[in-house]
Input
Amino acid sequence: MYTNDFVRRMQSPGGERRRGRSMHIDIPLLLTLIVLCLGGLMVLYSASGQSAFYVKRQAFFMLAGFVAMILVAQFPVRFWERYAILFYGIGLLSLVLVLFFGVGAKGAQRWLDLGFTRLQPSELMKVAVPLMISAYLGKRPIPPSFNHIAVTLLLIALPVFLIVEQPDLGTSILIFAAGFFVLFLAGLRKRYLIGTFLLALAAIPSLWFFVMRDYQKQRVLTLLSPEDDKLGAGWNIIQSTTAIGSGGLNGKGWTMGTQSQLNFLPESHTDFIIAVLAEEFGLIGVLTLCTAYLLLIGRCMVIALNSQSQFGRLIAGSLSLTFFIYVFVNMSMVSGILPVVGVPLPLISYGGTAIVTLFLGFGILMAISTEPKRIRIDL
Amino acid sequence: MIHDAAFSDPARERRVFAGRLFITCFVATILTTVVLFRYFDLQIKRHQDFATHSDNNRVHVRPAAPSRGLIYDRNGELLADNRPSYSLSIIRERSEDLDDLLTEISALIEISDEDIKRFQKRLTRRKPYERTPLKFNLSEQERGVLAVNGYRLEGAEVSARLTRFYPQQKLFAHVIGYVGRINERESQQIDPVAYSGTDSIGKIGLEKFYEDQLLGTVGTEHVETNARGRVMRILENVSPKPGTKLTMHLDSKLQQVAHQAFEDERGALVAIDIKTGGILSMVSAPSYDPNLFVSGISQKDYNQLLNSPDRPLFDRAIRGQYPPGSTIKPLFGLIGLHSETIDLDYSIEDPGYFFMEGIERPWRDHNSKRGGHGSGVDLAKAIIESCDVFFYKMSVKTGIDLLSSYSKVFSLGLKTGIDMPSERTGIMPSREWKQGARQEAWFNGDTINVSIGQGFMLATPLQLAVMSARIASRGKMLQPQLVKAINDVPTAPIELDAPMEIKDEYWDYVHRAMRDVVHSPRGTARGISNGLDYEIAGKTGTAQVISISAEEEYDSSKIDKSQWDHALFVAFAPVDDPQIAVGLIVENGEHGSSAAAPIARMVIDEYMKSNTEARQLVSGGN
Output
């Protein structure tokens, strides 16, 4: 398999890897991230209508993210395991605060105004929730018992419930997924797995009638037949698929995409940025991006496999899978396979908190990858 | 379960984890394949369809700019108009080589370095395929040259749009203000949709105050474009709604007379319609041409206006704060009578100076060269001859508290509430004011200075006019207003409060005294009474610019003109049925009687002339 090949290459010890280890930097991870960020800035420049403003801001957040990542990586893995509950608690508290004192736009209340900056606690929970669950299950025997599963589900349900209330269905689903991945990687038994699956199926009608808002339902209906609503919600899908399709194999060239440059494409610098890339760089561009993503995810999985502790394995595995889900959901919704839920394309879409959160996660991965070896167990 | 209770088993944990990760990798591979197949399907298999669709994707919504509301004076004379103006813009995406194009254009018409500099700046802020203006106000000849050579200038476009034009030029610059291009700070505050078709905004004056009404509502144009964004035809229109039409109380003719009356002097004049509170004329001299600002003033012109010692950009009428001098004497006399500190029989002996108990330094009477105004100086004489010592004495009896609180009723020290931005309050000093501003207690000496409109006291020409109107109308509390009608619907006069309850005999007395300022042989403004066929009531004033010690004599021949006293005058007319009130100042004009009063006479004359003409016309028609 293609991934296995990659795994072997990454595992072979090299000089630069040892040098990186002492500074708690995982060189392959760092290089892939730099490549993705630079490519992202290039696409963003075109997608924002050649605006230096957005590119500068985004570059600033990326730099801040890199610094945060390196800082996080300096703390030992056991630190993150021990204080996971603290971060989780702070995150939960700020979610409660958002409900009462939050500020927001378009009917959703998502931000806390700290005076000097705005914080979106739900973003931080994307890291805090899997961290908490990994710390909890990492100390418990496998496979998780019924009681442990119940506690885990409660730990997931609390923030998910608070975020659904904001309302932000997309983020709450992603956080649920991040938590559930930990359970799954910890060896959740098959009968529970099947049970969950059936439960989810049964939950869909109640989700439709009690949780989802009208505009969210509209998005699902739009997905099924975009042509019915050409100028309303269907507009986005029609325009983004047109942008992607008209890109062809080679694309129209950088900053030459008519769909995005003539403002037919909505949200072109945020959630729909992949359509700009597909229009201007064609299928070759899309495949290049996917390769970079797969290299990144592959490296993260290798880190997970080589981790010394169960906690490290679980958190690293969960973070890499969540990252994959972001990419998958975003690329699917823009190309019209999934309904439009506000999921940005990681490292490419414009957005401050999201970028910093991603880098915090990569920081933990670096801490795990550069942890001093205690015992080497060969499989 | 037995193995649940077992101690941790690292090897097993690792094995289970690896298994699970393998399953997820398997699922992820399937999902990735699905997504990539979707992109393959869209980009390779159905590429042709989408490419065609994208080429035909040409219906575009464009904003259609509303025309800005017109502004008229009370007689239907146009004060702010919209005129088509042609500008040359460049669509960068459509020009092959920008530098080549610019060289080509500068060979045809004159493009200054400043034009280029500003163009480059705008270029960084534009949206793709947006027109970026290079030069405004193209002459007919320039348009011709560009039209003939148009085929060579791919990417350049001459477009017409309505721009603001002020036909009266410098006459109404300060009142009407002007519009200018939206700057970066403003663009963050405005509603981007409402301004999507507009690139200018009211910067000062009425244009700023009534911005929301004047702007109008943006329309939309559905236009068909080809794949490169060039407009092929207009498909559908939602017409923009033009902005509100404003009619002013202002009278162009009166404004012109007032403006000319100032000649080369600096100063300001405000004339108010006493019955409605409407502003008939508002002049700040010297003035400037507001048309310069509409499509961006050149740095050279701007520096010239900014650095001129006469400060033409400064609106003296509502932002200039001057010591009101003796013009406030009638008001303070009224306050003395109303508060019963003095009565109509109260009189003093004036030796030409005044000593306060416990203070060695005397207060001089500025308006008599030798020996003072003599004995038997009552309030009327003190107003007519402008005797300072009378007011020194009276004010000490009345006290600052009464003077201050009643003066505020006559708009001193408060904003008048006129419909213009950035009006200033002036200062009507009081104990609290001094404590707050200077952290000092109030002294009787301060009261004495205030009693002749000096000391800490400051007022704007607008406030003086409003004070004069409220005295003339026997305390009617009307708010000064510029707008007479909005879209031809008249705006009602705004009455701020119930009229001041002051005895009629006091009003009569003060009106009579003010009339005698002009019409009696000893009045300080007797110079303007020649040939009057109606009666003016007034009061002169002189405001010190530099302080003169008690022993020194003020001698204008010895000092620079920029330090000469300011000349002031307040007036209303006709005395029996007051219609117009005026407040004015001539900076460094020396004497209210010689510099300021004649200007008021010219303005009031013009008002009386046109109004009696109008009345005769009406009665003749019957």
